[in-house]
Amino acid sequence: MHEQEIEAANELLGHAPPQEVLRWAVKRFHPRLLMATAFGAEGCCIIHMLSEIEKGVKLINLETGYQFPETLALRETLREKYGMTVEYILPETTVSEYEKQHAGPLYEVNPEQCCFDRKVKPLKAAMERIQPLAWISAIRKDQTVNRSTNAGVIQWDAKFGVVKVNPLLNWNKGQVWKHILDHGVPYNEMHERGFPSIGCWPCTRAVRPGEDDRAGRRAGQAKKECGLHVIDEKEGSGI
Ligand code: SF4
Questions:
Q1: Pocket test for ligand 1, best of 66, 95, 198, 223 (most atoms within 8 A of CB)
Q2: Where are the beta strands (DSSP E) in the chain?
Q3: Cα 119 to the chain's mean position, in Å?
Q4: 107 CA distance to ligand 1 middle (Å)
Q5: What whole-number distance in Å separates Cα of residue 223 and Cα of residue 228?
Q6: In tens digits, what is the pLDDT along the chain, a chain of 239 residues?
């Protein structure tokens, strides 16, 4: 997709409802349209929208082996309700093999390497295998400063060489939850227990009142944006 086409798409869809953005993406890219989801509230919202547009869109989840049981259960609930199966993308090793290799859990001493081995590397391999032309991200503009300054509804993802579609970019958290409740969309029950953002269990904690939604991710570490989410001019990826 050329720069001019991305610009034109943004002019057309920059303020459009998410469903319209998804309809455009399905028409333009399906069957080479991909969505990677960690089953957050936004991701569930998009899966519901896609189920009414095109159930055949390829959905993947980076199953690091460290996800919460509630997250894994939600995959089944969504499959039963919408008839859309989210494919697990697995790392090269199981958790026990990995921890044996590193004489213990690597997330404690080198979380960057752990994320690389169990998220980034498997995702790259999956992208090479699936060869999408575009992928859908569930990011919202108001989630971080980085996202608000760099993202467009349609953008070029130089890291993976695909178009990135951000249908919920202009929605706020309230709009996401209104959609979920209005349409009875299944969501992770941990959201009701103080977990607004849910990743791997060793790197996620409940947030305290007044804290930022992502404060509970990668708890205790300065870096809150996993490498997959960082958006800059060179690397516009994110799930
Ligand atoms: S989020 Fe934590 S447990 Fe999950 S892959 Fe990254 S470092 Fe490992």
A1: 66
A2: 33-36, 58-62, 86-89, 134-136, 154-157, 162-165
A3: 12
A4: 6
A5: 12
A6: 788 999 999 999 999 999 999 999 999 999 999 999 999 999 999 999 999 999 999 999 999 999 999 999 999 999 999 999 999 999 999 999 999 999 999 999 999 999 999 999 999 999 999 999 999 999 998 876 665 556 799 999 999 999 999 999 999 999 999 999 999 999 999 999 999 989 999 999 998 888 887 787 774 444 444 545 543 333 333 34
